[in-house]
Write a structure and sequence with these properties.
The chain is of the alpha/beta class. The chain is built from twelve helices and 21 strands. The protein has a nine-stranded mixed beta sheet with strand order 4-3-5-6-7-8-9-14-13, with helices on both faces. β8 and β9 (255-257) form a beta hairpin. Bound molecules: 5'-O-[hydroxy(phenylacetyl)phosphoryl]adenosine. The site of 5'-O-[hydroxy(phenylacetyl)phosphoryl]adenosine (DLL) has 22 residues, from α6, β7, β8 and β12.
Length: 433
């Protein structure tokens, strides 16, 4: 198996610690001097850059959360002047405002580097035609994969998300050998091929690079058998860089984290204490090469375990297990991050409904659907029907433009939604994970 960057991917643990320590020291020094937010946080903890002498000192550093990015919206945590920022991306925040991330020219190059490693790790090379069906735009998926795929010299088909007929046509006509999209969309494509009576054997697909949402081993089996490909997992998040923070190799026994750029830790989300290899914890990353938006101990909210043992592929880069859960209430609907609180704020802003609502997530065939049930006054049901449908439309439009994902609105009579004695049950997720 060829590797994109054998030097870093196969480094001894001691060498890696050296690289990480040096880069961590530099990063801490840089954020202390360039990001008032971090200087203040470090001062509150009574630490100075000089206190960080090796990777062992990482536990002394403050955590960063999505809320911190939100409080400093849009560019407050940037460590370089705006003139050095060559690109921004954004992802959903917990309420109306997105989380904004920025990249210097070198960050864009780092992003391509880690995606290049990920693509090689998945078995792709310059001989492949990579159909990128992640969304292009503010979402990091499309452009992130794109630059990495160009870097390895593959033929890139930048089709972006959706448009299933066209996806299938290009799979056929361009002989795409690698498909990059969310796992749920891959299943949807498989189903559409079957409906159209197109045998998968007539396609040239061999590998799928799937991520941006949780998926299980069962789903992997289903995708692999229906598309007759090898399906590998790609993980990432905008705050850290985008896709390509970690990727599975052919062994499919966990995702190699590109830890010379992003130092992972797993912590107990309640006590914030580190947990041992093999124990489930919340994944935390410190970026040690990012220029525009370096983050110290960013709490991803994703739950996983780490494994530092060597892998049969020869890489020494630490592996994280597939992420299947989160320590917060974020939902991923067709690849789009959705927080219940975003929907709540829209409803409160409109102000024509009762404060009782519930989100119901289902899988229809292979696609996620999101229903928003909201209670309204009895009077809506006795009045002419127009009023009810006008309010439905208004809410639908407002929620869809906030979330960027389609929703089904069900206005229901008072007391329809079960009351709870403790925490309100805001989400019923019927998808099996
Ligand atoms: O989803 C980046 C990405 C694009 C990853 C394309 C892979 C492929 P965000 O929109 O910021 O970035 O969402 C990040 O998505 O914290 C996880 O909860 C979830 N996530 C991403 N990849 C996986 C995966 C992109 N392979 C959030 N398995 C993360 C499980 C994933 N969850």
């Amino acid at each position: 198996m060829t590797m994109w960057n054998e030097h870093y991917e196969c480094m001894s643990r001691e060498e890696m610690r050296e690289v990480q320590s040096q880069r961590l020291i530099d990063t801490v020094d840089r954020v202390y001097h360039n990001v008032p937010f971090y200087r203040k946080k470090m001062q509150e903890l009574g630490i100075e850059p000089g206190d960080i002498q090796s990777i062992d000192d990482i536990v002394k550093l403050p955590f960063t959360t999505k809320q911190d990015l939100r409080d400093n919206y849009p560019f407050g945590l940037f460590a370089v002047p705006k003139s050095e920022v060559v690109r921004v991306h954004a992802s959903s925040g917990t309420t109306g405002k997105p989380t904004v991330v920025g990249y210097s020219r070198r960050d864009v190059s780092t992003f391509s580097e880690v995606v290049a490693r990920s693509l090689y790790c998945a078995g792709a090379s310059k001989d492949d035609t990579i159909q990128i069906a992640y969304g292009y735009g503010l979402f990091t998926g499309g452009l992130g994969l794109h630059y990495g795929a160009e870097k390895i010299g593959a033929t890139v088909v930048p089709i972006s998300g959706g448009n299933t007929q066209k996806q299938i046509q290009l799979l056929q006509d361009f002989d795409s050998s690698v498909l990059a999209c969310t796992p749920s969309y891959a299943l949807y494509l498989a189903e559409s091929l079957e409906e159209m009576n197109i045998p998968v054997e007539s396609l040239n697909l061999k590998v799928g690079i799937f991520g941006a949402e949780p998926w299980t081993e069962e789903m992997r089996k289903q995708i692999e058998s229906s598309l007759k490909i090898k399906a590998v997992d790609i993980y990432g998040l905008s705050e850290i860089i985008g896709p390509g923070v970690a990727n599975e190799c052919h062994a499919q026994t966990g995702l190699h984290v590109w830890e010379d750029h992003f130092i992972p830790e797993t912590i107990n989300p309640d006590t914030l204490e580190p947990v041992a290899d093999g124990e489930t914890g919340e994944l935390v990353f410190t970026t040690v090469t990012k220029e525009a938006l370096p983050l110290l101990r960013y709490r991803t909210r994703d739950l996983t375990t780490l494994d530092h043992s060597p892998c049969e592929c020869g890489r020494t880069a630490v592996r994280m297990q597939k992420c299947t859960g989160r320590s917060d209430d974020m939902l991923i609907i067709r690849g789009v991050n959705v927080f219940p609180s975003q929907i709540e704020s829209v409803l409160l802003e409109i102000g024509e409904t009762k404060p009782h609502y519930q989100l119901i997530v289902n899988k229809e065939g292979t696609l996620d659907t999101l229903e928003v049930w909201v209670e309204v006054d009895d009077q809506y049901f006795s009045d002419e029907i127009g009023k009810l449908s006008a309010l439905t439309k208004k809410i639908k439009h407002a929620i869809e433009s906030t979330l960027g994902v389609s929703v089904i609105i069900k206005l229901v009579e008072p007391k329809t939604i079960a009351r709870s004695e403790g925490k309100a049950v805001r989400v019923i997720d019927n998808r099996k994970l």
